[in-house]
Each structure stands twice: as structure tokens, then as C-alpha cells.
Amino acid sequence: MLDKKAKEKIIKKFKTHESDTGSTQIQVAILTEEIKQLTDHLKQHKKDFSSRRGLLKKVTERRKLLLYLKHEDADGYQKLAKELKLKIAKLFEEDDEKARLEELEETGVIEAVVDEVPAGAVEAVPEEPKKEA
Fold this sequence. Notes:
Largest sheet: none
CATH topology of the largest domain: Helix Hairpins
Helix content: 55-70%
Distance between the termini: 64 Å
Strand content: under 5%
Order of helices and strands: HHHHHH
Oligomer: single chain
Shape: flat
Structural class: mainly alpha
Mean pLDDT: 82
């Protein structure tokens, strides 16, 4: 848990306007600092499973907030990730791919591409003969 001064410092650094205290960027920054503290704690206390569970909850919450931020404000997401030195997971790339495929299906582009493939173009692959020992 962060102390009051540390939170105020983070809020001051990441606020988007004068009275901003809880925007997505601030929440992600605070969670990131809490995750760092819990990670350091767990390096010393390997059997502290309650803290481990709390860490996993915070990581999940941060991931959800980052995903929301990416969809709402892509530039802010990139800036925040760079400033906090976050590694961009492949999970986000997979989500982008799923979203693109869903969008293409909705617009009918994928069906059009599939319809263009001739019926005989896709052949079944013959099975290889089984080798007897």
C-alpha cells in the first residue's frame, strides 16, 4: 500500500487537468507502483500467499484499465506505457487481432474473401501410410 505522499506525487505527475485525481492514467500509475512494492515484498517473503493473491488482483485490474485506455485513448496509452516502462504484452496484440476480425466479419469483408476462393482450390491432405515396426 502506498503512503499518502507517494500517491500525491504520482497524481501530480500523471494528472490530465487541475482537479484530476482518479483518471485511468493515474489509476494505472498507482497500481504500477503498488505492484512494484508487492513484487519486492514477495522476493523476500516467498510463502506470503495472501500478498501474492493481492498482487495478482492488482495486475489484473491494471491490465483491464490499460485495455480500456488503449481503446479510448491510444495516444495516451502509448505515452503512459512508455513513461511507466511497461512491457506491452502479446495479449493486447491478440485482442487487436480479434477486434479486427470481428470488424471485418461485421462489414462482410471476410465473407467476400472466402466466397472468392474456388470450391476445388482447397484439397484434403492425404494421410501418410502408417509404418509398421
